[in-house]
Amino acid sequence: MIRPERHRWLAAGLLALLAIAILGVAPVLAAAKARNVIVLIADGCASEQHTFARWFKGAPLSYDPYQVGAIKTYIADSVIADSAPAASAFATGVRTNDKFISVGPNQNTLSVVPPPPEELWYKPVATVLEGARLMKKATGIVATSRVTHATPAAYIAHAPSRGDEDDIMEQAVHQGIDVVFGGGKRHLVLKEFKGRRTDGDNLYEHLKTWGYQIVENREQMQSLASGRVYGMFAASHMDPEIDRPRLHPGQPTLAEMTRKAIEILARNKNGFFLMVEGSQVDWACHANDPAYLLSDLLAFDMAVQAALDFARKDGNTLVLAMSDHNTGGFSIGNYATDGLYPRMKVEKFLEPFRRMQASSIAMMAQIEKDKTPARVQAVIKDGWALEITDEEARKILAAAAPRADDAYYAIGEVLCPKYTYVGWTTHGHTGGDVPLFAFGPGKPGGIVEAPDIARVCASAMGLDLARLNERLFVDAAKAFADGKVGVDKSDPANPVVKIDYRGRPAELPVNKNFLKLGERLFPLEGVVVYAPATGRAYIPLQAVRMIRGEKAALPGIAN
Ligand SMILES: [Zn+2]
Question: Disulfide-capable partner of 138 in 220, 268, 350, 451 (CB 3.0 to 4.6 Å)?
Answer without folding.
Answer: 268
